Amino acid sequence: MSANLFWKYDPKQEAAFDPRFRKATTLMRILIGGLEKTLPQDLPNKTEVFLGSLHGEIEPTFNYLKGLAQNGVGRPFLFQNSLHHSTTGFISQQLQILGPTYSLCAIDEPQKEVMAAALVQAVANRNPVLMIHADSFPEELGEVSDYSVKTEGEFLYLTEESLSTLEIISETSELKGVGHFEELYSAINSKQSFKINFQHMEIGFRVN
Amino acid sequence: MDREKLSEDVKSLIIEAVNLQHLTVDSIKDDASLYQDGLGLDSVDILEIIVAIENKYDVKVPNAEKGKEAFQSISTIVDFVMNEKSGTSH
Amino acid sequence: MERAIKNIAPVFINEHASIHPYGVGIESLWEACEEKKRHFENGLLYIPEEHSKHCLGTENLFSRKTLLNEVAENKLLAWSLFCLRSLEEKSQLKWGPRDGLIIATTTGLTRVWESELINHFQGEKTNGILYQPIGGFAQEIRHQLEHQGPIQIVSSACAAGTQAIGLGRNWLNLGLVDRCVILGAEQICDLTRTGFSSLSLVNGEDCLPFNETRSGICLSEAVGAFVLERQKRREHSVKIVGYGCASDGYSMTAPKPDGSGPLHSISQALEDAALTSEDIDWVHAHGTGSLQNDRAEAAAIKQLEIKAPVSSTKGIHGHSLAASGVWETLLCCEALKRQKILGSAFSEPKHFTINMARDNQNSKVSYILKNTLGFGGINASLILGREA
Question: Between residues 291 and 330 of chain C, which touch chain B (CB distance below 8 Å)?
């Protein structure tokens, strides 16, 4: 039985060109790099994957639409990578994770929204979960907005064992709020109760 | 149209179109299949290459059957482009 | 330690609303399917202008100024608010903290972003990028409804609609909300219209699911919405009895030919419902009419020895991506209500070794299996039932 795992992308560690990822986007490449390095080989088949993002695969989508606008050509690769399940699908394919995979688009806070969705599912199904957050932003678009999203990627894998006693509790006022994966990682590891606030909702969790 | 030059151009276009940076123009044989026992490409790669060739040489693959026939190897692509070009010049 | 959902109270589809190329409300779609209408043009099926005008003309559609100017004219937002306002009225929804909303869409306001991008490429400074995040679509809905409850957006390609229903059921079962509105919304945009063609997946004429001569999908647009609750509110409310979801890990754009993806999602849904394949009375297939989808889906149905009639209605109404799982679920609700199944329009049963239903049939319908398959190898299945 492996342990819970947390990983965060470090932009200083650029990987060399790998022909396996020749069709992949930046987000796909950095996530696969981290997942392959960090996750155990024998990931349980029923692992449920939740990937949340604010912009999704904005880069290929933008480049696809740019090609279309400028020379009337829509490139198949870019379209294939543009749709919102592409990152999650690529991860499932590369790592042969054959359980349920969900792509969520965040409304305000990607990490909180992914954590809430994944933990609610874990309470219902008792399966291990892999929660992922990834975002990037093409430089060219920086000119037309105030957004300044750098490439971000992180994930948290929680084992079936660590989730086996997870419960939703209604009394949340005393609980510590968890805002991102790393905080959740330490709350679960130290068996501390916590809450997640998202979209006017406050969900309390207890680990026994 | 110089066949040898065209062949080299097609190879470098393919390397760029489907990101085969681990290969060089010299390492790809003219008769190498685009598929499994050659460059190992899949059907979406082929579509991408068709788009690139059509764009660069201002030619048009009329239908899927022609696409399948013309996009088998580097040589068949070169044949296709040369045929189309000589056809339009008359 | 196992706490299976099936031991918890079922959830019901109560009030619903929809807008689609054949009109407003699911009855008009059902009738179009019965009559085997097909109005595709160049492989596309749009919501006619008159229906959009009807939506936009609805009183109180927008309760206040939109967050972003350009979206006030956007049809997807108008169709969505039209359906949500209709549910608001029918169910006395106040959009309070105990009313959840789960939205299934793959493109959101991409139509608006696309036109803003053209200005951008022409060198104009625009704030078009603000429309890119799909969350922007939900923010606008939240703003207009003055919604105080949780909202989530599912964008897992064409399985997103059924996934939204699966996730909403958990919100209800775990007591996080009292009502959960499911909204599936998709508008044809340049990205999808040209993108599926670039992958040679679009048929320029008709959509022929489960037909040997099929050559691709026809895109359509629609919004479907309904209220999920633990209580049954209407005589014909339909029960969600099973849900299953699985990936096949095969390709970014095609299902694994052996059908292992839908095989697993269907098996899980059956297990979740504590039913066997013999209990299923009708399979409402994903049946997009693409070469790969129909082959894989039929392979799964065959391996599971499902003897029930199988139909795809996409030959009539086309494929609306993430929204399809939502409004096609409403078609299944109609089948349970009418005790009738729709034929698989334009299928050629002899080409598939499953029980293709060619004609509409009056029939005892207790349980329906609804499948969805999506890019990235995602599969989700639902089993819907009639309360005995």
Answer: none
